[in-house]
Design goal:
With 333 residues, this protein is of the alpha/beta class. The protein has two domains: 222 residues, Alpha-Beta Complex (Spore Coat Polysaccharide Biosynthesis Protein SpsA, Chain A); 85 residues, no CATH class. 38% of the residues lie in helices and 21% in strands. It contains eleven helices and 13 strands. Strands 7, 8, 9, 10, 11 and 13 form a six-stranded mixed β-sheet that branches. A hairpin with a 6-residue loop joins strand 8 and strand 9. Helix 6 runs parallel beside helix 7, helix 7 runs parallel beside helix 10 and helix 8 packs antiparallel against helix 10. The longest helix has 18 residues.
Length: 333
């Protein structure tokens, strides 16, 4: 029966109504809370939860945070997985805000580890148990599984030598260092949130995990990949595609915010500005000279417009979700 293997965590909220959970036993709560963020991805979310229900060797609290989906996602989760805590938000709070709601629920439940999991993922049956076992054997870290794209033509997204280092850490043959954090599946020690806080909701979408990683590094917590634990990731289903102008808008604006928060000196600022510029110029016609590039940046091309909008909104301190007017102006519906 769907949802049978998933642990209840607190009350369930459906359309603003709170239903009390079944009586809890005297047993200690599971050490792992999994936060699944959903936005207009009903079929993906149900597949993700099915794969979580099939996990072996680990007990979990599973929390679904629905970011005001319009496709019936919340009702479908409530019907198919009644043992899952469902938090249906009245507005879309983005990746950062939605996950912060789930993190708060996980911490209230006494979780030792919080796993942030995109709803467009499918998890191999031993992955969660492997991640928890590895996290307990390692110093505090931001731990990721290996990630395969759902589209076989795209191959591997994260693995040893692909996003992670090709050389394992000392004393382990299966754990590889990373110089970034990736939110598709991210296991975080619960205690870290008390040290560095949760996600900065000004980012809304894109680069919020880069900011979190930078803050973690400042207190000596590194990012690692447990390559033998695997998930499959469709990537950016809620955007509608992997590469669209909306992502460019958020990437440019948020790269500048990220640089503002963490740049140390002129060189770091210059590197951040270059990264923001590259994000846009990557879409310019191949072989363009500087003059042609400047003309393209001033053009009506949707990616050029998105880049300009991201820069303007950064300068004007407009963070969080893009305004409805901005979305309409950029044709990012």
């Amino acid at each position: 029966m769907p949802g049978e293997g998933l642990a209840w965590c607190g009350a369930r909220r459906d359309n603003g109504l709170v239903q009390e959970p079944p009586p809890l036993s005297d047993a200690a709560p599971p050490a792992l809370a999994v936060v699944v963020l959903s936005f207009n991805g009903r079929a993906d979310t149900l597949r993700c939860l099915e794969s979580l229900a099939a996990q072996r060797g680990v007990a979990m609290h599973v929390i679904v945070v629905d970011n005001a989906s319009a496709d019936g996602s919340a009702a479908a989760v409530a019907a198919a997985f009644p043992a899952v805590e469902l938090i249906a938000l009245a507005e879309n709070r983005g990746w950062a805000g939605g996950n912060n709601v789930g993190i708060a629920a996980a911490l209230r439940g006494g979780a030792e580890f919080v796993c942030l999991l995109n709803n467009d993922t499918v998890i191999a049956p031993e992955t969660m148990a492997a991640l928890v076992a590895a996290a307990r054997s390692l110093p505090p870290c931001l731990l990721h599984p290996g990630i395969d794209f759902a589209d076989p033509a795209l191959g591997v997204q994260l693995d040893a030598g692909q996003g992670a280092s090709a050389e394992p850490i000392a004393g382990r043959s299966d754990v590889f260092p990373m110089d970034f954090a990736y939110g598709a599946c991210l296991l975080v020690p619960a205690a870290l949130f008390a040290r560095i806080g949760v996600f900065d909701e000004r980012f809304f979408l894109q680069l919020e995990e880069a900011d979190f990683h930078a803050r973690a590094c400042k207190v000596g917590v590194v990012a690692l990949c447990l390559a033998g634990a695997r998930i499959v990731h469709a990537e950016s289903r809620s955007f509608g595609a992997r590469i669209i102008p909306l992502k460019t808008y958020y990437s440019v604006r948020n790269q500048l915010l990220l640089t503002e928060k963490h740049a140390a000196g002129p060189r770091a600022w210059l590197a951040g500005l270059r990264q923001a510029a590259w994000t846009v110029m990557n879409f310019a016609p191949a072989g363009s000279g500087w003059l042609a590039m400047l003309r393209w940046l001033a053009s009506a091309d949707p990616y050029a417009r998105a880049g300009r909008a991201g820069f303007v909104d950064y300068v004007c301190r407009r963070f969080g979700a893009a305004s409805a007017a901005r979305v309409r102006a950029l044709a990012l519906r």
